[in-house]
Amino acid sequence: MFRPNMHGKTDQLAEEIKRVIKRVSGMDISGYKNDFLLRRVRARMLALGITNYKEYLRRLKYDPEEIDRLLNELSINVSEFFRDPWIWEKISNILWDLIYRKTIVRIWSAGCSRGEEPYTIAMLVKEVISGVNGFKKVTIYATDIDADAIRRAQEGVYDVSSLKNVPKYLLYKYFDRVSVGRYKIRDSVKELVKFRCHDLIKDPPLIFMDIVFCRNVLIYFNKDLQQRVLMKLYKSLNRDGFLVLGISEYLPENVRNMFKVYDQRARIFQKI
């Protein structure tokens, strides 16, 4: 059984790992929660057959590729289409209002993983546009720190397990089956989404957005980093733009006065 040999306080260990990563790779992950970091470290140790944290630290110091693997673990590329299905009816109502009122609508899916979220948004946008008269241009910007996740999102091929919440009529309308249990999103949906690598922590925010989705990302950051990222998201939004967080995420106290609550249960907020 895997039982890592721990010496000293876990917080000290996590801080040492952060220092090594910054010194060797230049990547500053100081804002990540220590318990989350150590869970990902233990996963890497298990994969390598290492049971001693000091041995893993030595591995990090002399193996830049292992640092890359650990950083990929931190990106947590776990998602699915229509995650938390009840929320998307509320998102659909917002999209109807925006697309009815505006000619150009810009949406940002920050931390888009392998594309399930931005493609979910794109399908809803297609449904709305089909019922609205006049020229409408909607662009969905989908970003993630993980280049491999972006590559897989651009391919747009998914196992049936990630499609369990997709309504049947949307599955038939916007996907093609490519093999048993594998489906590919159609080009008519893909053309609405622009993917690119982006680091929420160090890169400047995208701007002039009507909606920003940043779901299940902040939970891995400490309070200081959450506030810094939320300030960036605030700056990215147009006046009265919407911010959508994960259902287990909250606005820190010193950021709350910058947003009004649109739907507390769904964690949808509107820029003041």
Poorly predicted segments: 1-8
The end-to-end distance, rounded to whole angstroms, is 53 Å
Number of helices in the DSSP assignment: 11
**Beta-strand fraction estimate:** 15-25%
Secondary-structure map with pairings?
Blueprint: H1 10-25, H2 34-48, H3 53-62, H4 64-74, H5 85-101, E1 104-110, H6 116-129, E2 137-144, H7 147-155, E3 157-159, H8 168-174, E4 175-179, E5 182-185, H9 187-190, E6 193-197, E7 209-214, H10 223-236, E8 237-245, H11 253-256, E9 259-263, E10 268-271
Parallel strand pairs: 1-2, 1-7, 2-6, 7-8
Antiparallel strand pairs: 3-5, 4-5, 8-10, 9-10
Helix pairs in contact: 1-2, 1-3, 2-4, 3-4, 5-6
Describe the structure.
The chain is of the alpha/beta class and 272 residues long. It has two domains: 10-74, Chemotaxis Receptor Methyltransferase Cher, domain 1, CATH 1.10.155; 85-271, Rossmann fold (3-Layer(aba) Sandwich). 44% of the residues lie in helices and 21% in strands. It has eleven helices and ten strands. The protein has helices spanning 10-25, 34-48, 53-62, 64-74, 85-101, 116-129, 147-155, 168-174, 187-190, 223-236, 253-256; strands at 104-110, 137-144, 157-159, 175-179, 182-185, 193-197, 209-214, 237-245, 259-263, 268-271. A seven-stranded mixed β-sheet has the order 6-2-1-7-8-10-9. The protein has a three-stranded antiparallel β-sheet with strand order 3-5-4. Strand 1, helix 6 and strand 2 (137-144) form a beta-alpha-beta unit. Helix 1 runs parallel beside helix 3. The longest helix has 17 residues, at 85-101. The radius of gyration is 20 Å and the shape is globular. The N and C termini lie far apart (53 Å).
